[in-house]
Fold this sequence. Notes:
alpha/beta; Rossmann fold; eight-stranded mixed sheet; 11 helices; 23% strand; binds adenosine-5'-triphosphate; binds magnesium ion
Amino acid sequence: MAAPLIEVKNVKKYFNVPAGKNHAVDDVSFTIEKGETLGVVGESGCGKSTLGRTIIRLQEATDGQVLLSGEDITHVTGKKLRAVREKCQIIFQDPYSSLNPRMNVKSTILEPLKHLKLSPAQRKEKAAELMDLVGIDRRLRESYPHEMDGGRRQRVGIARALALNPEFIVCDEPVSALDVSIQAQVLNLLMDLQDKMGMAYMFVTHDLSVVKHISDHIAVMYLGQLVEKCTTAELFSNTLHPYTQALLSAIPVANIHAPMKRIPMKGEITSPINPKPGCRFASRCPYATEACHQPQKLEEVSPNHFVSCCRVREIN
Ligand SMILES: Nc1ncnc2c1ncn2[C@@H]1O[C@H](COP(=O)(O)OP(=O)(O)OP(=O)(O)O)[C@@H](O)[C@H]1O
Ligand SMILES: [Mg+2]
């Protein structure tokens, strides 16, 4: 069997801070197959961006391994790192701050190709091709970021990420900064592009409702660790971890007559700096017992459904 496109093995990323070590990503493992989308969901500060950036080598892992098509890329340098840079791309949350204000659309989307010797005619053709692909009018090729709305700016960010035909894209909250009406258009664009070009996504968001339609699998992250991981359908029909249940209960429902049973998350948030062993959600969990202070492990409780919670393990 072919190796998965991305394999993340026990990856840790700690930041040194004055008070100790911030365990931003703490022993995370998963795989992403070619052409597949993994949604990574969790609250602000739980380590989603750090995880994405570490996988594609924008940050060095503190420990663990990242494999790309079976090859260990965790510490590669030189030519091999350049190959990783080509195959793995990122789309950022805020297209305004991730685009150079002094570069027009054409220069921005062709920037990743700057080491290729393209004639002016080839550059024009490649830019037109990429603009068509992401649905930006060709007449905007000389426009600057401040002259465009948020949706178009994000399309420019997407075109830039596609320029080198990547195999894997980290989409880091790519629609969170956009108007709701534009969010769906950009999500649909990302799904159409995946159908056409076959790349895999790691789609990072704090909003479960956003990843519901785009992800094949979902990983729920809490303070640097995965607490639940399964297919999207399974996550919504058989939600097991108390944190995931609370996240799900916070999604607004269209039917105003449907009873809202929002599960409140009370209690103090555990600090990611020098955390104690045991479940990091325990201080906010309505079901927490003494047993939760023991180290927890992500375990398969039913086929392909992984949960890190001693109570769930007992019930199942
Ligand atoms: N360069 C850094 N130096 C020190 N600490 C950092 C650094 N980058 C991130 N952190 C810390 O790591 C933790 C995870 O941050 P990260 O940005 O990955 O979270 P996130 O889930 O992407 O949050 P958000 O939803 O707000 O984007 C946070 O506690 C953050 O303060
Ligand atoms: Mg982030």
